[in-house]
Amino acid sequence: MHIRAHVGVEGKDVPEDGLTARGMGGCACVLAGVGVVSGPGALADLTAGGDRLLGQFAVLAGAFFFACNNVMARRAPDMPLVAKSSGVMLAGALIGTAMASTATPPAALAEAGTASLLGVAGLGIFSTGLAALIFFRLVDKAGPTFVSLTNYLVPVFAAVAGYLVFGEELKFRVLAGLALILAGIAISEWRRVTD
């Protein structure tokens, strides 16, 4: 059974990312994998109140807005990839600069050394800028659902990097969670040829 979500703007639909039983099963498998990687302690912490509960809601809100961002990127008007990425980066730079100027005294900004300014520029161009290009390309080619699912790999790669770089223990549950996450992504993205 396939429920298509046609939400067209200027002729751009996302029917390939409609709600399907296979996609829901894949998402459940991915979420189970993240739960396995995070461990039972993370799930037990869900009953905490106060600031912890507020933080948990903030994480859920971030995930919601990230999903909205993926769909909006897919439905954006057709334009060159560099123009789309540059527009987003420019808007982010202006907003970030405005927020930084209210939180940081102007004198501290004026005293920033050349190395600091070059470091910020390098991070903006090579890390964030290239990531924006890759993000928009992936959303156009693979769809917003696939891009969302790939973010579930972040905790796994963090655990593997901790093992390789810092010598942290790599537990079996991390490997089991990685297997579940990869299986869930494969299930969600499996394309059946019906024609």
Would you kindly provide a written description of the structure presented here, covering whatever features stand out?
The protein contains 9 helices and 2 strands. It has one domain (2-189). It has helices at residues 21-38, 40-44, 50-74, 81-103, 106-110, 114-142, 144-150, 154-166, 172-189, and strands spanning 2-3, 19-20. Residues 1-11 have low confidence and may be disordered. The chain has 195 residues and is an all-alpha fold. The chain starts with a strand and ends in a 6-residue tail after the last helix. Helix 1 (21-38) packs antiparallel against helix 9, helix 3 runs antiparallel to helix 7 (144-150) and helix 6 (114-142) crosses helix 7. The radius of gyration is 20 Å and the shape is globular. The longest helix is centred in the middle third of the chain and has 29 residues, at 114-142. A two-stranded antiparallel ribbon has the order 1-2.
SSE layout and pairings?
Elements: E1 2-3, E2 19-20, H1 21-38, H2 40-44, H3 50-74, H4 81-103, H5 106-110, H6 114-142, H7 144-150, H8 154-166, H9 172-189
Antiparallel strand pairs: 1-2
Helix pairs in contact: 1-9, 3-7, 4-6, 6-7
Jot down its keywords:
9 helices; disordered N terminus; 2 strands; globular; two-stranded antiparallel ribbon; 195 residues; mainly alpha
